[in-house]
Amino acid sequence: MMMLESIDELLSHIKDVQLDVIELSSESLMKMSAFMEKNGLEIDEDISTALQYQDIITQQLNATIEAIESMKQSIDMFSHAFKSDEGLAQQSIVKLQEKLQVTLKEAKEKKSRFSGKHSAEHADDEIEFF
Amino acid sequence: MPLVIFVDDSETALASTRMVTNSMPIEVKQYTEAQVALAEIKAGMTPDLIITDLNMPVMNGFEFLKELRAVPATKRTPTLMLTTETKPELKQQGKALGLTGWIVKPFNPAQLKQAISRVLRLPA
């Protein structure tokens, strides 16, 4: 049980770090873009792409934060079951494993969804009109 | 000048589009929340083009699009989705809801300018 509490604390720490990274990366690029706008600098494709990567970084980190929250919830449910009846522990650990697998699958799917043209297979996509 | 509105919960994404469009002969309004843009449209704002993100909290791009199509003034307003999403089924869903086009982030500045000019029929 102590181990689960340590894992829970570690997950909370990772989540806090990720939230800080989101905030700092956004602040950093907003300062750069404010400087460029103030000085009337034209952006080329590379700079535009760099600015837009921040949006992708935020979405990717938010998706992993959702996965962390889901993991924490599953661990919490397991801990409660374990505390109330040790006989349920074996059943609960199977359920915990299943829930963690679902969380992992969803997180991987979001990684792919939120990559935009950053993933090589879409690198040459152009604007699509319907 | 034609009015183009951008809706994206990412401030940096809005800054990117602003720097691309500031040399174009268009008026630009930007919103970080779709529901705020919708309220202004319902209050009488009539954009000539709407460019919106898909994944946003509170009201996502598809929900926004459905609401736009229910307002007489924006029933047929050209609307482009600007998103990291690349799934064909999502594009189909957007098309079925009356979306004009789909732009995948990170966008190419020249292509975005061309797309806006094409939709608004601006002189080359």
Q: Care to describe what's here?
A:
- The complex is a heterodimer of chains A (130) and B (124).
- Chain A is mainly alpha-helical.
- Chain A contains three helices and one strand.
- Helices cover 78% and strands 2% of the residues of chain A.
- The N and C termini of chain A lie far apart (55 Å).
- The relative contact order of chain A is 0.11.
- Chain B has a single domain, classed as 3-Layer(aba) Sandwich (Rossmann fold), CATH 3.40.50.
- Chain B contains five helices and five strands; from the N terminus they run βαβαβαβαβα.
- Chain B has helices spanning 11-21, 34-42, 61-70, 88-96, 109-120, and strands spanning 3-7, 27-31, 49-52, 79-83, 101-104.
- Chain B has a five-stranded parallel β-sheet with strand order 2-1-3-4-5, with helices on both faces.
- The longest helix of chain B is centred in the C-terminal third of the chain and has 12 residues, at 109-120.
- Chain B starts with a strand and ends with a helix.
- The relative contact order of chain B is 0.19.
- The chains are: A mainly alpha (130), B alpha/beta (124).
Salient structural properties:
heterodimer, A: 130 residues, mainly alpha, B: 124 residues, alpha/beta, Rossmann fold, 5 helices
